[in-house]
Amino acid sequence: MGSCSSCLRMMLDAESDVKIHGNLKYLEKKLLY
Fold it and tell me: Does the pLDDT of residue 1 top 60, yes or no?
């Protein structure tokens, strides 16, 4: 169960990382263009 919850947390962290990265790229585009 411990490994399962840590796996889930890693997946959630990766998802939020992607979202934050996408937002940063979007902001960069708005600033550059």
Answer: no
